[in-house]
Amino acid sequence: MLDAGGGVGGAVGAGASKVVMMAAPKVAGAPAPAAGGGYKFKADELESVIQRWEDLRDALKTDERDAERMAHVQGPGREFASGDFANLANPSGKAFLEANQRMQKYVAQYIDALRKAKQSISTQEEQAQSDVARAGEQSA
Predict the structure, then answer these.
(1) Rounded to an integer, what distance in angstroms lies between the CA atom of residue 5 and that of residue 26?
(2) Dist CA 71 CA 46 (whole Å)
(3) N or C: where does the chain have the smaller number of CB atoms within 10 Å of the terminal CB?
(4) For the chain, what percentages of helix, strand and coil (3-state, to nearest 5) are there?
(5) What is the per-residue pLDDT across 75-134, written as a single tens digit (0 to 9) for each?
(6) CA distances in angstroms from 29 to 11, 24, 99, 102, 127, listed in the order given
(7) Pair 104, 60: CB distance under 8 Å
(8) What spatial distance separates the first Cα and last Cα of the chain, rounded to whole Å?
(9) What residues contact 113, with CB distance under 8 A and at least 6 apart?
(10) How many CA atoms lie within 13 Å of 133's alpha carbon, on the beta-carbon side?
(11) What is the pLDDT of residues 68-83, one digit of tens each?
(12) Residues 6+ away with beta carbon under 8 Å from 68
């Protein structure tokens, strides 16, 4: 589970039915996530959730290339109307590019948080298996 401060905690539940709770990551310059907001996943679904977020990241990278072109529009001609069009279009393209880059940062941080949660679950499961094996050896 990821707490609001970005720290990794324990998963809730037992075995394959574990539920992982993820708070939205904090991103500098973005509004703070709402209290109590976030997502819940079953631990065994975590890999497919990570894959969907990675697909979103890849789509955002494709959009970024388009946004770069939108942020550097040139007028089709040399008359004032073409220049005015470019002067008005470029700020919109730049705003779209900046929004895309902020979203990419958010998605990257969320993927990192998901991977940490997955690693935490794996570590907890390995520790539990080790504890059970040790307890079995001690009772024999």
Answers:
(1) 8
(2) 36
(3) C
(4) 65, 10, 25
(5) 888 898 888 988 888 999 999 999 999 999 999 999 999 998 888 876 766 677 776 767
(6) 29, 14, 11, 9, 39
(7) yes
(8) 36
(9) 2, 6, 8, 22, 25
(10) 6
(11) 999 998 888 889 888 8
(12) 97
| Structure-token pair, residue 44 | 């065994």
Task: From 3, 41, 9, 10, select the one nearest 24 (Cα to Cα).
Answer: 3
- Residue with structure tokens 């939108």? 70
Cβ-contact 96, 71 below 8 angstroms: yes
Neighbours of 109 (CB within 10 A): 15
Amino acid at 33: P
Residue 2's closest CA among 47, 51, 41?
41
Residues 6+ apart with CB under 8 A from 29: 102
* Three-class DSSP category at 42: strand
